[in-house]
Amino acid sequence: MLLFYHDRFSIHEAVVGPWGGSGGRPWDDNSHTGINTIYLSHGDCIGSFQVIYRNPYSQPIIGVKHQCGADGFKDETIDLGVGEVIVKVSGYFGSARQHTVVRSLTFTTNRRTYGPYGKQEGEHFDFPIQRGVIVGFFGATGDVLDSIGFNLSC
């Protein structure tokens, strides 16, 4: 896990992760004001991943769908309510489909827990957010989600 912290224009940001394997094509959704919706697909691992962010005016910013190239995954939608923020991300990564990939994800907010999605097998990771909020995700995707990390605004 990499933890990177910088102070740019008096905005404190931290980059946390990634968890998972080293394969796939890297992607980075960058930092935004907050999160409205998370779309993901899952089966024996996490297939695809997409986030609808919000800008400072609470307007939606549609993130790129980090597409799954495999069949047989179940689609899920996580809609965060007004004032609802993610306070913990946990999951598993391990071998599936001949690679190390993200096997499972669980998102805990200040109101409830979403998931687990996927299969809870492999190495467990757990990151409670002590200070700040998730404002963006990054990772790598091949046929499935190879790795995931996130940007925090502190």
Overview of this protein structure:
It is globular and about 40 Å long. Strands 1-2-13-12-3 form a 5-stranded antiparallel β-sheet, with no helix packed on it. Strands 6-5-4-7 form a 4-stranded antiparallel β-sheet, with no helix packed on it. Strands 10-9-8-11 form a 4-stranded antiparallel β-sheet, with no helix packed on it. The protein has strands spanning 2-8, 11-20, 25-28, 34-42, 46-54, 60-62, 74-79, 86-96, 99-109, 113-118, 123-128, 133-141, 145-153. It has one domain (2-153): Vitelline Membrane Outer Layer Protein I, subunit A (Aligned Prism), CATH 2.100.10. It is mainly beta. 0% of the residues lie in helices and 65% in strands. Residues 1-10 have low confidence and may be disordered. The two termini are 18 Å apart. It contains no helices and 13 strands.
Task: Name some characteristics of this structure.
154 residues; mainly beta; Vitelline Membrane Outer Layer Protein I, subunit A; 5-stranded antiparallel sheet; 4-stranded antiparallel sheet; disordered N terminus; lectin
Gist?
This is Jacalin-type lectin domain-containing protein. Belongs to the jacalin lectin family. With 154 residues, the chain is mainly β.
What is the percent of helical residues? under 10%
Enumerate how many helices there are, as a single number: 0
Low-confidence stretches: 1-10
CATH topology type: Vitelline Membrane Outer Layer Protein I, subunit A
CATH superfamily: Jacalin-like lectin domain
Q: Could you describe the largest sheet, including whether it forms a barrel?
A: 5 strands, antiparallel
Strand order of the largest sheet: 1-2-13-12-3
Number of domains: 1
